[in-house]
Amino acid sequence: MPPLTFTYQVPGDDFTRAGEASGQLKRTLKKIGFNADVIRRVSIAMYEAEINMVIHANGGEIEAQVSPEKIEIWFRDQGPGIPDISLAMKEGYSTAPDNVRSLGFGAGMGLPNIKKYSDTLEIDTELGVGTTLHVIINAE
Amino acid sequence: MTIRDVMQILDAELICGEQLLDTEVHTACGADMMSDVLAFVKDQSVLLTGLINPQVVRTADMMDMRCIVFVRGKVPEEQVTELAVERDIVLLKTPLRMFTACGRLYEKGLRGGC
After folding, report:
1. What domains, with CATH codes, occur in chain A?
2. What pLDDT is recorded for position A13?
3. Can you give the pLDDT at residue B114?
4. Do A105 and B58 touch (CB under 8 A)?
5. A109 within 8 A of B61, measured Cβ to Cβ
6. CB interface of A with B, residues 6-65, below 8 Å
7. Which of A19, A44, A109 is closest, CB to CB, to B36?
8. Are B62 and A15 in contact (CB < 8 Å)?
9. CA atoms within 13 A on the CB side of A123
10. Domains, chain B, ranges and CATH?
11. SS (H, E, C) B66-108
């Protein structure tokens, strides 16, 4: 059976709506009947990536492919790109603006959290062109 | 304890979620940094925070938390309450500050959980 595919557009101009796509996929996975731990790992990784898209890249597109064995997600944006990935992966390193910090984000935990909760994380980034995150979370 | 107990212990007012007040809770987390909640929290059911934006509700939802307590008398806007109603999350507000609110709950048996 081919995986179920879900796509979401993430608007870049409204931080209050960031997380809407993650909430939708979470409820879908619940209905399908994935176990709670898998759902939480997907939710956290996706939520962090979605927030990142809004903060740093003026939004983007998320594609999720769901099969019984794994949940695979691509986050594609046309933002500024990540100049130094190893620095961005460091816990506590953040380039988020102050207004985002005042909302409880921008602690430099986004990418480290995505890595922590996923089984595979690939980052494809080009300065001035955009970034694609490829995340796999095994369900078995 | 139940969320109703949490409400009494903190002299809190209910903002929404009355039908969920008898939900059992065992663990809690106090934080203003939502990234830290996402990074370090596991199986906590109550979130105490001084932030009142919609991302607090979304964060709690992602972590399967059942109740958010706004400390220092803060009150969220209507859209935050609507989101909490939609996600079945109880919202409470207490005049207590973070340290005191956490301390009272700890004293009555609620734990950090990790």
Report:
1. 4-138 (3.30.565.10)
2. 79
3. 55
4. no
5. no
6. 15-19, 22-23, 26, 36, 40, 43-44, 47-48, 51
7. A109
8. no
9. 19
10. 3-107 (3.40.1390.20)
11. CEEEECCCCCCCHHHHHHHHHCCCEEEECCCCHHHHHHHHHHC
Q: Which amino acid is at A123?
A: I
- ipTM exceeding cut-off 0.90 for this assembly: no
Give the other-Cβ count within 10 Å of A83's Cβ: 10
Residue B37 DSSP symbol: H
A9-62: pLDDT as tens digits: 999 978 888 999 999 999 999 999 999 999 999 999 999 999 999 999 999 999
Interface-testing mutation among B32, B38, B53, B74, with chain A (most A C-beta atoms within 10 A): B38
Residue A134 identity: H
Of A26, A59, A41, nearest in space to A131 by CA = A59
Contact criterion met (CB below 8 Å) for A45 and A70: no
The 10s digit of each residue's pLDDT in A93-105 is: 899 888 888 888 8
How far separated are the first and last CA of chain A, in Å rounded? Answer: 17
A106 has a chain B CB within 8 A of its CB: yes
- Which residues 6+ apart lie within 8 Å of B22 measured at CB? B2, B3, B4
Q: A103 and B55 in contact by Cβ < 8 A?
A: yes
Q: How far apart are CA B28 and CA B47, in angstroms?
A: 6
Phi and psi at B43, nearest 5°, equal: 60, 30
Residues of chain B contacting A38 with CB distance shorter than 8 Å? none
| pLDDT for B21 | 97
